[in-house]
Amino acid sequence: MPEITLVEVESAVNPSVAVIWLHGLGADGSDFEAMVPELGLADSPAVRFIFPNAPYRPVTCNGGYVMRAWYDIISLEPNSRKIDEAGLLESREIVRRLIEREQERGIPSHRIFLAGFSQGGAVAYLSALTHPEPLAGVIALSTYIPEARLITENLSGSNQQIPLFVAHGTSDDVVSIGLGQQAIEILHRCGLSPEWRTYDMPHSVCSEEIADLGTWLSTRIMALGHVF
């Protein structure tokens, strides 16, 4: 398994909560770093944001061009994706290593959120919903579930009630809103209750979404309480 480099940002000293945030295809760990102060978490317990860099790999749907990717995408259809399942599972193992790293640094699993944008969100979904220990929540932005059976057949009892913030742009021409809605249907079939929000935007983030996410995340963090 490749060594992973990452970017870390702490909202204040002595963090007791962690957010592991996975970027999208072709981006890197610095992609969402600037969003941290915009989330408005100043009154929450301190949070450590971990932004890992995906490994470099050829991406078939982009003509085999080598870029940072959590898994290879073989073909793109309006309402489906053909992907390299082995790469997806490898990236889940990377996330599990990052969770273990935070536990070793004193943050228990139930205070760790998984977040992801686009391809990173697909990895966050799979990693969280099949993780054997309880996690704090999932943030899934402009994303999809490429292999539903990997979740439905391996759903973790520890995370069947996990909070989910799911957001999508109504004019997304990269990951269609139909793919986002398919993910919501899969989550419902698993007995989960995601908070589903849509925004008038393409395949990106917007200020209203960031504000809503900040409110959701702050509420969830405050519910976890302080660690003394």
TrEMBL record:
<dbReference type="InterPro" id="IPR029058">
    <property type="entry name" value="AB_hydrolase_fold"/>
</dbReference>
<protein>
    <submittedName>
        <fullName>Phospholipase/Carboxylesterase</fullName>
    </submittedName>
</protein>
<dbReference type="GO" id="GO:0016787">
    <property type="term" value="F:hydrolase activity"/>
</dbReference>
<dbReference type="InterPro" id="IPR050565">
    <property type="entry name" value="LYPA1-2/EST-like"/>
</dbReference>
<feature type="domain" description="Phospholipase/carboxylesterase/thioesterase">
    <location>
        <begin position="11"/>
        <end position="219"/>
    </location>
</feature>
<dbReference type="InterPro" id="IPR003140">
    <property type="entry name" value="PLipase/COase/thioEstase"/>
</dbReference>
<comment type="similarity">
    <text>Belongs to the AB hydrolase superfamily. AB hydrolase 2 family.</text>
</comment>
<keyword id="KW-0378">Hydrolase</keyword>
<dbReference type="Pfam" id="PF02230">
    <property type="entry name" value="Abhydrolase_2"/>
</dbReference>
